[in-house]
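Before relying on records like the one below, remember that each one covers exactly one chain. Contacts with other chains, cofactors or solvent are not represented anywhere in the record.
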Amino acid sequence: MKSNILLFIGGLGGWEILLLLLPAVLWIWALIDLLQSRFTESINKLIWALVIIFVPFLGPVLYLTIGRRQKVPS
């Protein structure tokens, strides 16, 4: 019985919870990576921060695929 309660918290199943958590995890991952990175131009960092914050789901995906290439190599 307890396993059913954990799978259906608030009427949501396992897949629904995963679909809700995936964008949040991508958003946090992109922001942390952005904040720890250096760019050739500081304006690029600001632009990517705005894109990540204000463009839901697509912003973090774009940063993780395109923006990471613009970083200064360590």
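DSSP finds four helices and no strands in the chain.
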